[in-house]
Amino acid sequence: MEIEQILHHAELFPLAGVDEAGRGACAGPLVVAAVILRDPFSPALARVKDSKEIREVERESLFDIVIEESLAHCIVEISPNEIDERGVHAANIDGMRRAVLGLALAPRFVLTDGYAVPGLAIPSLGVWKGDQVVHCISAASILAKVTRDRIMRTVDSVHPQYGFAKHKGYSTLQHMNAIREFGPSQLHRRSFANVATIINITE
Fold first, then answer.
1. For labelling, which of 81, 122, 144, 199 has a CA lying 20 to 30 Å from the CA of 11?
2. Where are the domains of the chain?
3. 16 in Cβ contact with 36 (< 8 Å)
């Protein structure tokens, strides 16, 4: 957490962390979260780390803790249609901008996972594997991941044939076989090569 300590010592706070969930999935939305923690070093946040390293049930409990320990947060959902129209990277970067600008409290500095965010008037820095080494980015990753998982469990009740509740829209063998059998739904990202290949074969 050295980056956060340096920025706090330089009085560059409030400090916002930003991360996404679902970038690599071939179905469902991309979800981006930005969060400003009241105190990134609070003992209440001791269990907060990269959401991919935490069991689903624990992420759910940490979601509420992050909200309680935040001064502001914003969660942005980007639809499969927008991803297909703009490309996943452009949609992701724009989602990060929207999440930061959607914060009720303006940060003085922004830390993002991996990618720098061009076009922000606020100073920012992309941190390699930031969700593993920066508390506020880890917190944002939990907000994004839990929100997206909840969405995918909900849509599973509408489209149970795809198994969204289990694989959350990622390209498992079960998921690919379901697309071959039932065709793509409106939740599938048709610009993704594996989905496009199945569509071309079946049409």
1. 144
2. 2-156
3. yes
Pairing state of beta strands 70-78 and 124-127?
A: unpaired
CB 7 within 8 A of CB 68: no
* Domain 2-156: assigned CATH number: 3.30.420.10
- Cα–Cα distance measured from residue 184 to residue 71, given in angstroms and rounded to the nearest whole number: 40
Q: Which helix (H) or strand (E) holds 197?
A: helix 193-202
Distance CA 104, CA 153 (A): 29
Instruction: For residue 27, give the amino acid letter.
Output: A
Confidence of residue 129 (pLDDT cuts 50, 70, 90): confident
Summarize the confidence of residues 153-175 as an average pLDDT.
97
Q: What is the DSSP string of 54-74?
A: S-HHHHHHHHHHHHHTEEEEE
DSSP-assigned beta bridge partners for residue 109: 15
Three-class secondary structure of residue 99 per DSSP: helix
Lowest mean pLDDT among 39-53, 68-82, 140-154, 184-198: 39-53
37's enclosing H/E stretch is strand 30-37
Residues 6+ positions from 77 with CB-CB distance below 8 Å? 29, 30, 31, 147, 151
DSSP 171: -
